[in-house]
Amino acid sequence: MSEPPSTEQRSLAHWAEAGRAGMEAFYALALEDYRRMVAARDWAADLRAHAVDGRVRVLDVACGSGKFPAELIRRGLADAVAGTSVEIALLDPSPFSLAEARSVLAAPFTVGARHRSRIQDLPADVGGFDVAWATHALYAVPPDEIGAGIARMVAALRPGGFGAVVHATAASHYLRFAAAFRDTFAPASVPFTTAAQVEQALTAAGVGPEVTTLHYDVAHTDRAVVEGFLQRCVFDDSVPLERMEAEGSVGTYLAQHVRGEEHRFHQVVDVITWENPAAS
Ligand SMILES: C[S@@+](CC[C@H](N)C(=O)[O-])C[C@H]1O[C@@H](n2cnc3c(N)ncnc32)[C@H](O)[C@@H]1O
Q1: Which domains does the chain show, CATH number per domain?
Q2: Ligand 1 atom nearest 30 alpha carbon
Q3: 259 Cα: distance to centroid of ligand 1 (angstroms)
Q4: Which residue's alpha carbon is nearest to atom 26 within ligand 1?
Q5: In a mutational test of the pocket of ligand 1, which residue from 114, 116, 138, 145 has the highest number of ligand atoms less than 8 Å from its CB?
């Protein structure tokens, strides 16, 4: 019997044209993630502070469909970094994601290289970036490979470069729902990586992460949208909402998060930042 697809393989299968409807249902709730993280810090100041000769080179790790740069643009990044050129390289194993992210990039971003790669496999000669970020991006990297992925991200930054990973904690809907779904419907699947595992990996890579934790809810009253959101949360659209509500730990979890017509989920998200040590 063949092995079931890994979480990383299921993620890749969903980050494709055939997964567009699920992606849109997902972002009906998940756009809030990007509003919150962009509001959470002065990203323009981070970019300006790490520019060299008026130019900052950014690596967007696991760029997905570019919701983070799109929200930065919507909130006025171009004016906030006026005078600094922002060149962004995209990294993702999915050609669909690389094309989607490319299509939303506008001023102040200019598009640099596109790397079709997992973060763990990024060639060693890709580096020297002033800034690297990964926003809600590393859940499908297997927990036993997150150390290698984070080490590669740290190594891709120049000395004194700035890194950021925005990632849900084990107390957040994303991780709690994934754990309940795994328990009920997919016990052989690879668990999602947590923010604490990212933070341990950063410490092991020799940098000192600073963490700010965000708390907020996402909610919707349309059952079709909620079903698409939940299926996309676990990259598995084989289980309808009615069945999720009826079975095991998933049923218990969902019963705690519905009031009348509304499903409401709580997110607990770490904004993890660091600066690489300066060259000695
Ligand atoms: C939720 S999206 C990221 C969202 C994105 N940061 C944004 O601003 O819209 C997750 C992305 O991670 C990618 N991915 C999955 N496994 C990966 C890995 N091992 N290394 C890098 N990217 C990966 C997927 O292809 C997908 O495009």
Answers
A1: 7-169+189-219+266-275 (3.40.50.150)
A2: 1
A3: 32
A4: 64
A5: 138
Q: What is the pLDDT of residue 19?
A: 83
pLDDT in tens, 213-267: 999 999 999 999 999 999 999 999 999 999 999 999 999 999 999 999 999 999 9
Structure tokens at 169: 């904690």
Residue 1: per-residue pLDDT: 46
- In the structure encoding, which two tokens stand for residue 88, read together? 């962004």
pLDDT, tens only, 148-180: 999 999 999 999 999 999 999 999 999 999 999
DSSP secondary structure of 39-102? HHS-HHHHHHHT-BTTEEEEEEET-TT-HHHHHHHHTTHHHHTTT-EEEEEEEES-HHHHHHHH
Q: Ligand 1 mean position to 64 CA, how many Å?
A: 5
- Locate the ligand 1 atom nearest the alpha carbon of residue 96 and give its number: 27
The whole-model pTM stands at 0.96
Nearest to 269 by CA among 137, 167, 135, 170: 167
Query: Are 156 and 137 spatial neighbours (Cβ–Cβ below 8 Å)?
Result: no
Which pLDDT value is given to residue 20? 85
Protein residues whose CB sits closer than 6 Å to any atom of ligand 1: 8, 11-12, 15, 62-68, 92-94, 97, 118-120, 135-137, 140-141
Write down the residue that tokens 């970094």 correspond to.
81
